[in-house]
Amino acid sequence: MNYKSKETIGIIFGIIAYFSFSILDAIQKTAVIHYSIFQLLFIKYTFVLLLSLIEAKRANNNNFYKSNNLKLQIVRSLLSILESGFFVLSFKYLSLANAHSIGALAPIIIVVLSVLILNEKVSIKTWIAIFFGFIGVLIIIRPASDVFNINSFIPLLAAFFLGLYQIATKKITEYDAPEVSLFYSSLVGIFITSILAFSFWQPVDLTSLYFFVPIGLFFSLGIYFQILALKNARASIIQPFHYTLIFWAIIFGFFFYGDIPDLFTIIGAIII
Question: CA–CA separation, 187 vs 248, rounded Å?
Answer without folding.
Answer: 30
